[in-house]
Amino acid sequence: MSEKENVSEELVEETPLEETSVEEVEETVSEIDELKKQLEETEDKFLRARAEIANITNRNRNERELLQKYRSQDLGKKLLPAIDNLERALSAEVTDESDSLKKGIEMVLESLIHSLKEEGIEEIPAAGETFDPNLHQAVQTVPASDEHATDTIVEVLQKGYKLHDRILRPSMVVVAQ
After folding, report:
1. How confident is the model over 99-154, as pLDDT tens digits?
2. TM spans, by residue (predicted)?
3. How far is CA 109 from CA 72, 84, 113, 172, in A?
4. Looking at the DSSP assignment, which residues form a beta bridge with residue 173?
5. Whole-model pTM?
6. DSSP state of 126
């Protein structure tokens, strides 16, 4: 006899045929059912954790995009009074001697406005526009006339600015009523 046949005969002789009872089968089936239930619960937990991680990732990406989009907001708000002062300086009467100073102020103002536009900060159009309480702040009203229709902005007292879709400062205006 070959060695293979000897080994298989020994296994057959050593392994007695057992009779399994109905109770043992039922126990095994209940164990299998319990394990299946645990597997389903574990899969559910895994899927929920994966979805939560995806949500956190999306939320973080959206927050980063918003921070990037509105990063200039604080700087813009701080620069607006300086722009107002430069515009007031330009509106003052000048003599021939101070003409070069006025040119310098114009250059600085143009540079500031250009830099703000590059960052997405724009002036809110106001003069002659229809009053919009989301963009404009009515400081004063005047009676409507043939020249100025109702709810039309007659005069701009202080320019307003916005960064993309956010208002940094509303325009302070006089409105015809």
Report:
1. 788 888 888 999 988 888 888 889 988 888 888 888 888 888 888 877 877 888 88
2. none
3. 18, 9, 6, 20
4. 138, 156
5. 0.61
6. -
